[in-house]
Write a structure and sequence with these properties.
The chain is an alpha/beta fold. The chain is built from ten helices and 14 strands. The protein starts with a strand and ends with a helix.
Length: 325
């Protein structure tokens, strides 16, 4: 079972999602696309509606193990590119620091940071260390994989697009100027449609034999419409105002809108286009046309909402186990 989390920010909100959220998403997509036998992918309606940069899996991941040859300069460059922040002392996820022949980094998907000891261009030792006292306490003997901490990485292509945006759209001059120089900017994901115009959906990454099950579809549809509306409000508030200095307003909303949420109906249409069965499990009886293709979910029903009543939950689980579930 794989969890695919949603951003805690909206696509057009001028805030960046947390690096551990992004890393969890990219890691999940790699697992879905691997040869392992993934059976279930769980996400919220927010995660299901959100666009994903199409080439997100094209980046070569960083793999490290004792004895591997990689120069510290190359590793430093790759960590920078993956959205890590260089600091004097590693204190939080997404930090890395260099001191002589030692490189410390804290990957967003790990419990503790790792210290790498180089001998020339070879990794001589890798150890876990504590943030509090910076002391190592255990060796790392297995290979580790480092995933990006941003979904939009500042490649040469992105830098070129950002240079164009500086001249074309005055509102974006400050943000795009930094991106064109390779500097990550808080909220740069809000202009994703201008930097990386090709988007996919989580459904596009699923194998062909998957089925999509919406739990409590009416509630999901209501939540989806709220999300789309809120995101559009953020978009208009951010980009339809005039540029500083009294220049004529340039309405960016149409240009950037492709990077926002899709609607629930568009999600269902996409499932149909990809030949994925789309079911819903609701707290009440389903309509016949929802089960028109085949009655695969006839034996499913939604569990009660216990609202913290542990005794009732345990009683029901005991009865289900006794009944052969």
């Amino acid at each position: 079972v794989i969890n695919f989390p949603a951003w805690e920010t909206l696509p057009h909100e001028r805030l960046s999602p947390k690096s551990d959220t992004v890393t969890a998403r990219i890691s999940a997509l790699h697992k879905i696309n691997s040869t392992s036998q993934v059976k279930v992918v769980v996400t919220s309606i927010r995660g299901a509606l959100q666009p994903i940069v199409t080439d997100i899996l094209a980046e070569e991941l960083i793999t490290l193990e004792v004895g591997k040859k990689i120069s510290m300069a190359e590793l430093t460059q790759r960590l920078n590119y993956f959205g890590f922040t260089r600091t004097d002392l590693v204190e939080k996820r997404g930090d890395f620091a260099v001191r002589g022949g030692i490189l410390d980094f804290f990957a967003p998907d790990r419990e503790h940071p790792i210290r790498i000891d180089f001998f020339g261009d070879e990794i001589e030792e890798m150890q876990l260390f504590q943030v509090a006292d910076q002391r190592t306490y255990a060796d790392v003997s297995t290979e580790i994989t480092i995933y990006p901490g941003r979904e939009i990485l500042i490649s040469d292509d992105v830098k070129e697009k950002a240079k164009y945006l500086v001249a074309e759209f005055p509102q974006l001059a400050e943000m795009a100027g930094k991106i064109s120089e390779g500097i990550p900017v808080e909220g740069m994901e809000s202009i994703a449609a201008l930097l990386k115009p090709s988007f996919s959906n989580i459904l596009d990454f699923l194998p062909k034999n998957y089925q999509v099950v919406a739990i409590d579809q009416p509630r999901l549809k209501s939540r989806a419409s709220d999300l789309v509306l809120t995101n559009e409000e953020f978009l208009e508030a951010s980009w339809s105002s005039a540029a500083i200095g009294g220049a004529v307003p340039i309405d960016l909303t149409g240009v950037i809108s492709s990077g926002g949420y899709c609607t629930f109906d568009e999600l269902k249409d996409l499932a149909t286009a990809l030949d994925l069965n789309f079911w819903s499990i609701n707290p009440y009886a389903q309509s016949p046309d929802e089960l028109i293709r085949e009655n695969e979910l006839d034996d499913f029903e939604a569990i009660p909402i216990y609202e913290g009543n542990i005794e009732n939950a345990i009683a029901d689980i005991s009865n289900w186990l006794a009944g052969g579930y």
